[in-house]
Specification:
51% of the residues lie in helices and 11% in strands. By secondary structure, the chain is α+β, with helices and mostly antiparallel strands. It has a five-stranded antiparallel sheet with strand order 1-2-3-5-4. It is globular, with a radius of gyration of 23 Å. It comes from Actinomycetospora straminea.
């Protein structure tokens, strides 16, 4: 479906709602959203102009039940005093705009984490934002469960195991985390409505503080401390050393939560959920890459996300007390005689430069974003060409020392309990493998505060 076709459909649907002729202007797809599309536009009718946002499933990948839950959650959260974009319309009929959808009002502010954390205009907002996010989550968790019928609920560890088993890439790090999670389950608390993806990127922040909570796609029923743990996961701190979204301390977050909820969550349980959700995101990155690899949703963005699995493995090991250690000196692969210059590495560098210098400067926001993603992917390919043979040799040596031919066999042995997941030799080997993977995928991530 072209942008013009989508604009015509939006005009027709909004006209049905308002009973007036509607003109759609400025329709553009935003960079946000690897699983759902997000479009911004302006609708003009006899009543005036409104800035609106459309979220829809990728056409052909319809999930009508999920979109209906998201719309119901927005309405219930608004009634509970949670700041959310005003819901304008939603539906599951793909004939309306090509896929299940919802339309909300536009809310001014910023969603990009690095800007919120670093730009001077948000300095005042940052001062009390960790506590404000705690208060907001307490309001989310106070939403009556019967206000959103049909909320899914699963055992958190078994759900991770099922996700892991559905993938074709067993990971020793994940198996170690699963066994840790099973041993350290926190005492249960009453179920609540869980947002499921409460983090910078899904929050609109303006100069005064939190303006809106977005993206209720992962909403479910479960342990409310899950949202608190996810907010503290390292990958959403964008390089800041502060543990709560890069904004503040755990005490600030939990004190803010207690102001509204009346009780203060157990910090150890919040940390358990940090480990859980870091594992969940490692598997989620691999699952999204699998959609590209299977040809379901060809996308350079989804392909790139697959290489972020190593970042989450690194973060898991940090949480479990295994920091990265200096690696042995690497020997780059020799430049091949055939096919001569330019070599594969030269060509990769040239295309990455083209993407950064030409595509990213073309003026199209989403194209610039994808150009940056693709250039970063090619940087990793270049490192793999240069360092991959030596890293693979070291990897095979470590596996052999543990008595396994590949990481799938090692992961299976950990799952079956044939290998002690607390064995220092195992943890050292897995730590070294993850560090080597990050050396290719994103070496700068190794230096981020833990």
């Amino acid at each position: 479906m072209t942008g013009d076709d989508l604009g015509d459909r939006l005009a027709r649907r909004l006209g049905e709602i308002t009973g007036t002729d509607v003109r759609i202007e400025g329709l553009r797809r935003l960079t946000a959203g690897a699983s759902r599309e997000t479009w911004s536009f302006t609708a003009t009718d006899a009543h005036g102009r409104r800035a609106l946002v459309l979220r829809r499933d990728p056409p052909g990948d319809d999930r009508p039940e999920g979109m209906a839950l998201e719309a119901a959650s927005l309405a219930a959260a608004a009634a509970a005093g949670v700041p959310v974009p005003p819901l304008v319309d939603s539906g599951s009929d793909p004939a309306v705009v090509g896929a299940p959808y919802l339309i909300t009002g536009h809310v001014d502010g910023e969603t990009l984490g690095p800007r919120i954390l670093r730009e001077e205009r948000f300095a005042t907002a940052r001062e009390g934002l960790a506590a404000e996010l705690g208060r907001t989550l307490a309001r989310v968790h106070a939403v009556p469960l019967d206000a959103v019928p049909g909320l899914p609920a699963d055992d958190p560890v078994e759900d991770l195991r099922a996700t892991c088993d559905a993938l074709d890439e067993p990971l020793p790090t994940v198996e170690i985390a699963l066994r840790w999670l099973e041993r350290h389950r926190p005492d249960p608390v009453a179920d609540a409505l869980v947002h499921g993806d409460f983090r910078l990127g899904n929050l609109i922040v303006d100069e005064s503080g939190l303006a809106a909570v977005l993206d209720w796609e992962q909403v479910h029923r479960g342990d409310p401390r899950e949202d608190l743990g996810w907010l503290c996961v390292k990958c959403w701190r964008f390089g800041s050393p502060l543990p709560v979204a890069g904004l503040g301390t755990i005490d600030e977050l939990l004190d803010g939560y207690a102001e509204v909820a009346g009780t203060r969550p157990d910090p150890a349980a919040v940390r358990w959920w940090q480990v859980h959700r870091t594992t969940w995101w490692a598997l989620g990155c691999r699952r999204m890459a699998g959609r590209h690899l299977a040809g379901e949703t060809p996308s350079v963005e989804l392909a790139a996300i697959g290489r972020r699995v190593a970042e989450q493995e690194h973060d898991l090991l940090l949480l479990l007390g295994r920091p990265a250690e200096p690696g042995a000196e690497l020997t780059p692969a020799p430049r091949p005689d055939l096919p001569g210059r330019p070599s594969a590495g030269d060509l990769v560098e040239a295309v990455a430069g083209f993407l950064r210098d030409e595509v990213m400067a073309a003026g199209d926001e989403r194209l610039a974003f994808l150009g940056r993603v693709a250039a970063n992917v090619l940087d990793g390919v270049g490192r793999e060409i240069a360092l991959g043979p030596e890293l693979e040799r070291r990897h095979r040596e470590r596996l052999a020392a543990l008595g396994h031919a590949d990481q799938a066999g090692l992961a299976a042995a950990i799952r079956r309990g044939e290998v002690d997941d607390t064995d220092p030799a195992l943890l050292a080997a897995v730590r070294a493998a993850v560090t080597d993977k990050l050396t290719v995928a994103n070496p700068r991530y190794l230096t981020r505060p833990g």
